[in-house]
């Protein structure tokens, strides 16, 4: 990937959109494209430089659109990554992917923008986005990809397309020409569990029918700490309701409390596990003490004393820990206490902010996705053996004992979803959740 950073900010992306301006034009945007890897059309990487030009007379919020790059994966497993040229990370961008059945494409990668990307001014062009798609060392033929071009300087290119955010893959067109053909429909779901966490509080009967807030002592975490029901609450973010979990300390075990919310039902085994969760690096209150090594989690597990124990974890350590120093690290782990070693992948960078986590647990193994990108694939020996619980936790591995100032860390959960014996990609999960919300379904449970 190109790693030349330009320090100018998104100066062209700062204007608001007049209420009178329509944002529905199919030619609102032009994509400019150059192939950074034109010399290697048969290697294991696609590397595309992508810029958007606003053709309208008003600024357009980038969070309202997505960019789609169309390609054939040739039987390999694609893993996308991106860089803004004018920033040292992809904090304003996330990626997801999906399947299609179209001319020159059986797959696409979608570039999404969050609010930090701002608005693209009338007539302005974004800084370049370096989109890379790797194939795990497998050589692929790029020349039959719909979006492929061999130009080495930026030029208008209609085969990389712009769409309304949340639209069907070829729908909501705002620029370019998508490939002909249809999308592969998601598999049908026979049984599902969904909770939008729209409660007034964790004392609501509807909440306690589905979830248990832990108050008993014991591991994991700092010995002598408590697990407190008061560390779980429902909060608002705009019109949305969220479940908040907290963990607090003053640097002593006696002054430390954890939190856990676990499903009452142990009935989740093979299928799609998903949640939208906001991981937080900064404390809710008090100082950030890097000596506090704490864990923000979403996972599925059986009772620990079960002879058929299994656990699949997303464990985020904002202050590092478990051998990572002070580096923010996400652990993706399939744990089985009966095995000599459990596979894990460590992602050594911040995950502060909203993320969609999608886990596929099947008889073939466990596949972990974050924001539509596959990041870990663990073999069948770590597949669930019996039914499991859904679980959210916050707890301390160790404490910064030299600082006695009280501090509270937290994570927030927008929704959780499970599809029994069905494997939905991130786009399909998001579409399902949107459909449930549009139908005013705050929670649903048809899992036997």
Key words describing this protein structure:
mainly beta, Immunoglobulin-like, Jelly Rolls, 2 domains, 2 helices, globular
Which fold name is given in CATH as the topology of the largest domain? Jelly Rolls
Q: Outline, from the CA principal axes?
A: globular
Most strands sheet: 9 strands, antiparallel
Q: Supply the number of helical segments.
A: 2
Classify the helix fraction into a percent range: under 10%
The CATH first-level class of the largest domain comes to: Mainly Beta
Distance between the termini: 47 Å
Q: What CATH architecture label of the largest domain applies?
A: Sandwich
Radius of gyration: 23 Å
Class computed from helices, strands and strand pairing: mainly beta
Poorly predicted sequence stretches spanning 5 or more consecutive residues: 1-24
Number of domains: 2
Q: What proportion of the residues form beta strands (DSSP E)?
A: 35-45%
Overall mean pLDDT score? 89
Number of strands: 30
Quick overview:
With 448 residues, the protein is mainly beta. It has two helices and 30 strands. It is 4% helix and 42% strand.
Folded structure, characterized:
4% of the residues lie in helices and 42% in strands. It is built from 2 helices and 30 strands. With 448 residues, it is mainly beta. The protein is globular, with a radius of gyration of 23 Å. Strands 14, 17, 18, 20, 25, 26, 27, 29 and 30 form a 9-stranded antiparallel β-sheet that branches. Strands 15, 16, 19, 21, 22, 23, 24 and 28 form an 8-stranded mixed β-sheet that branches. It has a 6-stranded antiparallel β-sheet with strand order 12-11-4-7-6-13, with no helix packed on it. It has 2 domains: 29-180, Immunoglobulin-like (Sandwich); 192-445, Jelly Rolls. Mean pLDDT is 89; it is low at 1-24.
């Amino acid at each position: 990937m190109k790693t030349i950073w330009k320090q100018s900010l998104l100066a062209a992306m700062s204007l608001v959109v007049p209420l009178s301006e329509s944002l529905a034009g199919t030619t609102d945007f032009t994509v400019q494209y150059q192939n950074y890897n034109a010399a290697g059309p048969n290697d294991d990487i696609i590397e595309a430089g992508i810029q958007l030009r606003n053709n309208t007379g008003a600024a357009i919020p980038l969070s309202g659109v997505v960019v789609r790059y169309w390609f054939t994966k040739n039987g390999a497993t694609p893993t996308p990554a991106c860089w803004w040229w004018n920033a040292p990370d992809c904090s304003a961008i996330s990626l997801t992917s999906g399947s299609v059945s179209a001319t020159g494409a059986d797959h696409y990668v979608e570039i999404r923008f969050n609010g930090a990307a701002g608005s693209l001014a009338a007539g302005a062009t974004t800084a370049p986005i370096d989109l890379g798609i790797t194939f795990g060392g497998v050589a692929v033929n790029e020349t039959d990809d719909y979006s492929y071009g061999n130009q080495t300087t930026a030029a208008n290119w209609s085969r990389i397309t712009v769409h309304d955010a949340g639209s069907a893959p070829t729908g909501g067109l705002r620029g370019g020409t998508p490939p002909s053909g249809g999308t592969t429909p998601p598999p049908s779901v026979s049984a599902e569990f969904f909770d939008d966490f729209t409660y007034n509080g964790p004392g609501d009967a509807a909440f306690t029918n589905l979830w248990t807030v832990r108050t008993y002592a014991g591991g994991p975490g700092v010995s002598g700490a408590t697990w407190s029901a008061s560390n779980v609450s429902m909060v608002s973010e705009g019109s949305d309701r969220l479940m908040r979990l907290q963990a607090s300390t003053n640097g002593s075990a006696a002054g430390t409390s954890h939190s856990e919310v676990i499903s009452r039902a142990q009935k989740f085994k093979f299928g799609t596990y998903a949640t939208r969760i906001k991981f937080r690096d900064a404390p809710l209150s008090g100082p950030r003490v890097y000596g506090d090594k704490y864990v923000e989690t979403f996972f599925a597990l059986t009772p620990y004393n079960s002879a058929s124990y299994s656990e699949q974890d997303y464990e985020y350590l904002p202050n590092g820990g478990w051998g990572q120093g002070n580096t923010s690290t996400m652990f993706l782990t399939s744990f089985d206490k009966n095995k000599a070693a459990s596979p894990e992948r460590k992602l050594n960078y911040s995950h502060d902010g909203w993320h969609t986590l999608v886990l596929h647990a099947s008889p073939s193994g466990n596949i972990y996705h974050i924001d539509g990108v596959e990041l870990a694939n663990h073999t069948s020996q770590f597949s669930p053996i019996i039914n499991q619980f859904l679980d959210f936790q916050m707890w301390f591995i160790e404490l910064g004992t030299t600082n006695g100032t009280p501090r509270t860390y937290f994570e927030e959960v927008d929704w959780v979803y499970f599809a029994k014996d069905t494997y939905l990609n991130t786009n399909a999960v998001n579409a399902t959740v949107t459909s449930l919300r549009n139908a005013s379904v705050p929670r649903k449970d048809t899992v036997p």
